[in-house]
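hiii so um. not sure if this is the right channel but i have a protein structure encoded as tokens and i wanna go backwards to a sequence. like what aa goes where. can anyone help
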């Protein structure tokens, strides 16, 4: 396995078949990639993002796992599953590394990562994310109750001190 370094995908067309070929060639989902769509207007951007999402869903690739597909655009308020950033600098720096010769230990770690990535591809990521959200909701509720209880306790202590 090669080191997952950020690659740019230049989209020349938004036909589903050509996008599928581009994504296969660029190994979307197996390496982190980005597309600079900052030159597009809001309506055209929504159309392109919808097409990209359909192609990724058809290819059974999640936009965030195991490696993300970033979109660079000034319109970050889009409702999209794809991670959107305003500039290239906002992409995490750990994907922007220099290529250098790896030691044996690093190569073994990359081989383990490759196995884990293949297992992630076999998972239904959308279902897992839904399960995590459903598990998080009761925990957030308990946290808010505990926070409210702490607030009431501090008020009670202040009243008792007076």
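sure thing!! here u go:
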């Amino acid at each position: 396995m090669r080191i997952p370094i950020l690659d740019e995908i230049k989209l020349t067309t938004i036909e589903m078949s050509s996008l599928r070929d581009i994504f296969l060639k660029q190994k979307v989902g197996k390496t982190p990639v980005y597309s600079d769509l900052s030159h597009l207007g809001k309506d055209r951007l929504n159309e392109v993002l919808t097409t990209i999402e359909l192609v990724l869903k058809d290819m059974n690739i999640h936009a965030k796992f195991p490696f993300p597909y970033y979109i660079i655009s000034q319109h970050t308020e889009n409702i999209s599953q794809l991670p959107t950033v305003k500039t290239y600098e906002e992409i995490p720096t750990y994907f922007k590394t220099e290529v250098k010769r790896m030691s044996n230990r690093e190569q073994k770690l990359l081989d383990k990562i490759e196995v884990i990535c293949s297992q992630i591809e076999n998972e239904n990521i959308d279902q897992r994310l839904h399960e995590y959200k459903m598990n998080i909701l009761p925990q957030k509720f308990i946290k808010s109750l505990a926070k409210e209880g702490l607030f009431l306790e501090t008020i009670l202590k202040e009243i008792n001190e007076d």
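oh and The beta strands are 7-8, 33-36, 69-72, 84-85.
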